[in-house]
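TL;DR need structure tokens for one chain.
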Amino acid sequence: MSNVFFITGCSRGMGLEVAKEALKEVDSVVIGVSRSEPRENLLPLAREHKSSWIWIQADLALEMERIRIVSEIKKRNLQVSHVLHNAAALRKILFEKVTFDDFQYLFNINFWAPFHLTQLLLPVLKPKAHVVFMSSMGGFQGSMKYPGMSLYTATKAAIANLAESLSVELKLRDVRVNALCPGAVDTDMLREAFPHYKAPVSASEMAQFIYAFLIHAPRVMNGKVIPIALNDPSNE
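>> reply
TL;DR here they are.
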């Protein structure tokens, strides 16, 4: 049976690049979710490789939008084999200036949205499905931390811990759950946080690793939090 990929945050950066990798798989179905239209038209790539591209425009911060996304998957009678929770938000704010609004905004998008979306997706997950949460090196225990990133990295540490916990709870459903912690990757988000830093890894290079991890990792690992980094923006 063909693989069905569900990827959030697919309009740009790593999410877009992972979607492109998945579409190169013949007969695959790739469901991409984002607020804005992807920067590239992926339909020609899908036609070239005889795969299918489905874009769902939605704001993951809103509960009714998350419910609508899964409803659309059910209408198409699709069973998802690979989930990549890639969508995230960033606010770089010094600790003493963080407000409750900042807290609600970041934890809603970076933690609660993928948490709730995973709950909603359970009925449409194939046996042996693989769910991957995108954390970050900032959320990896013992990694270097940076001023202004305490709230963001807290959300990423929380999502990594969630992956560990869900790997136990969803084992009875024959679902594998892991988390990836990328380091410095050349994306809009990294440039926003560290504007003078040049990342050593491109989004397309990281996407190749993420795609391979989605496909192959569940055969040999579950509940793991994996750091992926050549470097950190320590000169910022």
